[in-house]
Amino acid sequence: MKTTFSIIKADVGGWPGHAKVHPSLEAIAQKALLESQREKLIIDFHVTHCGDDLELIMTHTNGVDSKEVHSLSWDTFCEATEKARDLGLYGAGQDLLSDAFSGNIKGMGPGIAEMEFTERKAEPVVAFMMDKTEPGAFNFPIFKIFADPFNTAGLIIDPSIHDGFVFEVWDIQEHKNVFLKTPEEMYDLLALIGAKSRFVVKRVYPKKSSKLPSSEPVSVISTEKLYQIAGEYVGKDDPAGLVRAQSGLPALGEVLEGFSLGHLVSGWMRGSHNGPLMPVSVKDAQCTRFDGPPRVTALGFQLKNGKLTEPVDLFDDPAFDLTRRKAQEVMDYMRRHGPFEPHRLPMADMEYTTLPKVMEKLGSRFKKVK
Ligand code: 13P
Ligand code: 13P
Ligand code: MG
Ligand code: MG
Q1: Is 237 near ligand 2, meaning CB less than 6 Å away?
Q2: Ligand 2 mutation target, pool 95, 238, 291, most atoms within 8 A of CB
Q3: Is any atom of ligand 2 closer than 6 Å to the C-beta of 236?
Q4: Per-residue pLDDT tens for 110-149?
Q5: What is the CA radius of gyration of the chain?
Q6: Which residue's alpha carbon is nearest to atom 3 within ligand 2?
Q7: Which ligand is nearest to the CA of 14?
Q8: Which amino acids are annotated catalytic?
Q9: Domain segments of the chain: what residues?
Q10: What distances in angstroms separate CA 361 from CA 338, 339, 355, 365, one per listed residue?
Q11: 273 lines ligand 2 (CB under 6 A)
Q12: How confident is the model over 94-115, as pLDDT tens digits?
């Protein structure tokens, strides 16, 4: 059986500021998805949040880009936005860039990570959700998981993954993609994805030699860049991603290991600062200090005929305490740089600050240096 696994997410209002999602918005989503499950549009679902981003995790058989599933998500975000307005939540409707739904939610503000695949006998899937960062934040862990033998022991010792994987990389400025094989093209891959604000990993595929179908993705990341969609900065593209694990893929622990550094990502405070990505439990998925630090949560499911088990909150574990502690130290160190790069993003990447206006104001006072 082929199942479609979708995460569709949007910030439709923060509580307070950009800290987290109000429970009444999650309740609206819960009700809407339950109704669609009863009507058999979706098979199963789980509603959650990461920081101020409302996350709809859904399984169905409609394939990716399904008009019905996208429309359900859009309507749910619109209903939640109304509630956010009633409650006076911050930035109500932040990520909804249009008033009219045109059949596909892509390019309208929400982030989308979906993949259709043939379920194995036992199918572990992890949903990763991030706040206060951008899609390129996934480049580092996805590379570690599927291509770094120091992270994933199976690349060396498990014959079923020893041949490596294929990475689909998007150039989000030029709107082009390229497929690169690891390990043989690893250096080319890294040359691109190290530039994480421009090149992002979109999907990972098994190779032809794998026992898994090489046309079905084993990982997918949301890559929508809001400020590019909107032509000007409107909100932030806090991403989500899906990773399948085990039996011909990295083990669950190899997948989680990819997040053990607390690596530096962009998108903290006003979308304009670099900081460490801290893996946290859902209960700690609220952004506080300097609106951060950037956070990632991981919910692990077993999937059977489209049905989901209860999720396991995978970063709710002392094994990640040291990563969190390190992230806190790095956060403190970065913060001491105040308005200086590389804590603040370089000029070209400054998103929604008043910096361009400051430059404009000073314009006539700049004199040519002789
Ligand atoms: P306001 O100062 O308009 O509230 O917005 C900036 C902001 O929310 C950055 O986090
Ligand atoms: P969100 O993109 O999560 O709304 O955060 C805005 C921001 O930059 C807060 O400082
Ligand atoms: Mg927000
Ligand atoms: Mg957010």
Answers
A1: no
A2: 291
A3: yes
A4: 999 999 999 999 999 999 999 999 999 999 999 999 999 9
A5: 20
A6: 132
A7: 3
A8: 11, 233, 236
A9: 1-118, 123-370
A10: 22, 19, 10, 8
A11: no
A12: 888 877 787 888 878 899 999 9
Å from CA of 333 to ligand 3 middle: 25
d(CA 257, CA 362): 48
Other CB atoms within 10 A of residue 49 CB? 24
CA dihedral 104, 106, 110, 115 (to 10 degrees): 90
Task: Tell me which ligand sits closest to the C-alpha of residue 234.
Answer: 2
Cβ 269 under 6 angstroms from ligand 2? yes
The SS3 assignment for 106 reads coil
Q: What is the mean pLDDT of residues 332-358?
A: 87
Contact 331, 283 (CB under 8 A): no
Write out pLDDT tens, residues 1-15. Answer: 799 999 999 999 999
Q: What is the bridge-based pairing of β-strands 295-304 and 278-279?
A: parallel
CB of residue 49 inside a 6 A radius of ligand 2: no
Q: Taking residues 170-179, what's their average pLDDT?
A: 92
So what's the pLDDT on residue 351?
A: 59
Q: What is the DSSP track for 202-271?
A: EEEEE-TTSSS-TTS-SEEE----HHHHHSS--S----EEEEE-SSSS--HHHHHHTTSS--EEEEHHHH
pLDDT the model gives residue 225: 78
* Contacts with 26 (C-beta within 8 Å, 6 or more apart), sequence order: 47, 48, 49, 54
User: Where residue 90 falls among pLDDT bands split at 50, 70, 90?
Assistant: very high
Render pLDDT for 187-210 as a digit per residue (tens, 0 to 9): 999 999 999 999 999 999 999 999
**Does domain 1-118 match CATH 3.30.70?**
yes
Would you state the structure tokens that stand for residue 261, as one six-digit string?
Answer: 């550094």
CA of 296 to the centre of ligand 2 (A): 14
pTM of the predicted structure, to 2 decimals: 0.96
Which residue's CA is the nearest one to ligand 1's atom 5? 270
The closest residue, in CA terms, to atom 6 on ligand 2 is 270
C-alpha 90 – ligand 1 centre gap (Å)? 9
11 lines ligand 2 (CB under 6 A): yes
- Residues touching ligand 1 (Cβ under 6 Å) are 18, 270, 291
